[in-house]
Amino acid sequence: MSVVAVFDVGKTNVKLTIADRVGRLLETMSTGNAVLPGPPYRHHDLGAIESWMLDGLTSLGSRHDIAAIVPCAHGSGGVLVGEHEPAMPMIDYEQTPPAAIEAEYRRIGGSFRERGSQFMLGAAHLARQMLWLETDWPAAFLDARYYLATPQYWAWRLSGVAAGEVTSLAAQSHLWSPADGRPAHLIAERGWQRLMPPLRPAWETLGPLRPDWVSRTGLRPDVRVVNGIHDSSANLYRYQAAGLSDMTVVSTGTWMVAISDSPDSDGVTERPGVCCNADVEGKPLAGVLTMAGREFSAVSEAGTRGPASRDDLERLIASGTMALPTFGQDDALFPGTAGRGVVEGALASDLTLRHSLAVLYVALLTDMCLEGLAIGDNLVLDGSYVRDPAYAGLLAALRPQARVLVNHEQYGTGSGAALLAWHETRDHAAPLALDRPDPLRVSGLDQYRTQWRARASNRRNP
Predict the structure, then answer these.
(1) Do residues 260 and 302 make contact, with C-beta atoms less than 8 angstroms apart?
(2) Nearest 5°: CA angle at 458, between 457 and 459?
(3) Could you give the CA distance from residue 61 to residue 156 in angstroms, rounded to a whole number?
(4) Is the peptide bond prior to 437 cis by the omega test (within 30 degrees of 0)?
(5) Any idea which of 40-44, 45-49, 59-63, 333-337 has the lowest mean pLDDT?
(6) Max Cα-Cα span within the chain
(7) Could you give the CA distance from residue 370 to residue 138 in angstroms, rounded to a whole number?
């Protein structure tokens, strides 16, 4: 049976996943995504990742008939490349650029509609990375051939063919205006068109695997290399391929990403955390983005492990004990609160309650993310948080009008990316198992939410 290999590049980990034609996971392997200290700046070790990927393909190919390889990745990475090799190291997006670069970028960055997201932390936007490289390494920038988003960088390394792709560019790169379906004006203003390869669909085959890597891995010479996709759009595609529509998908991990395909959602009015992405067809998607995984870890790490219990939640709510933002440096939902997170209340020092408090906290953050979105007929929850049943139960209680559905698969991104390989030949909906959780009705929850929102909002710096 022919299968697809998905090369999934996250900020913390890199995965190789084997999936079948309907997106079912068959095997996976992973490694850390190492960051080197520099010079010239903190950067990812592309050489080590490449060697690991080729070794992984060799190993997986000895057990599976790999027909295609699909790259996917987070939306804040890109690589400046020459004709055949990287021209500069891949910037770690949590690396803070020089103050002069930051100031200049905010001056030239354009309107929110142009950017599709707020100005985010560090070097999170590809356009800001490009400005930094152009300013501080002008010779390398001038000699470069392309600037490629991470999925398309790896598709290029695998096939030798350079392409752009709309979901990657629409993912807070600030190089694409998602609402208008066109390149951002900044590209022409800076003369960066020469670095932008032609756009090709996420599902398009760029070519076969490079002959030298066929020899290295032992894979078939006709293995197709697919253009690739942004990870959140791949996860959404998992549901689109299953026939779902009019939905909001909340994916949880290091980042919490809420994306709505409802035409009633507003993705062009600037609000804390709001963003506008795109699906594989280029349709604008309103969303909200925040680094909630770091928040969860900060609240829970000192305490006992879960799952959260109803008794613990009732004690926390009755006592008014709250985790208040923001513990990390991404304060998207509550601007001005970065690094000021705190646990307050009568039970704040009870570490046995910390996991339950963290689940309650991220449920409230999720509820805030949904506030500005038109949810549609379906509210789908997936990712690491749904491992604790209380998370979905709390959302079902906080959002009683929504049809809450839970996907317990832990590799939705990999499944969605794999399904791209047969986008043009699939003639039926991909199977998908979803659960509908019972609302976790905890006394005082609605009043607690009101108080939490007020206290969280009041923590902003003057």
Answers:
(1) no
(2) 90
(3) 20
(4) no
(5) 333-337
(6) 65
(7) 42
Cis peptide upstream of residue 40 (ω within 30 degrees of 0): yes
d(CA 6, CA 415): 8
Exposure class string for 428-444: b at 16+ Cβ within 10 A, else e: eebebebeebebbebee
Residue 212's CB is within 10 A of a number of other CB atoms, namely 9
Q: What is the pLDDT of residues 240-295, one digit of tens each?
A: 999 999 999 999 988 899 999 987 777 788 888 899 999 999 999 999 999 899 89
386: tokens are 């749904």
Query: For 114-148, what is each residue's pLDDT tens digit?
Result: 999 999 989 999 999 999 999 999 999 999 999 99
Contacts of residue 94, Cβ cutoff 8 Å, sequence gap at least 6 = 11, 42, 121, 122, 123
What residues make up the domain containing 461? Answer: 231-462
- Residues 6 or more apart whose CB falls under 8 angstroms from that of 246 comprise 261, 262, 376, 377, 378
What SS3 state is found at 239? helix
- Alpha-carbon distance of 281 to 167, in angstroms, equals 9
Structure tokens at 25: 């996971």
- Residue 409: which CATH number? 3.30.420.40
Two structure tokens written together for 69: 């390889």
- To the nearest 10 degrees (0 to 180), the angle between helices 99-108 and 126-136 is 120
Same domain, 263 and 191: no
Residue 461 is predicted with a pLDDT of 53
Do 176 and 146 reside in the same domain of the chain?
Answer: yes
pLDDT at 462 exceeding the cut of 50: no
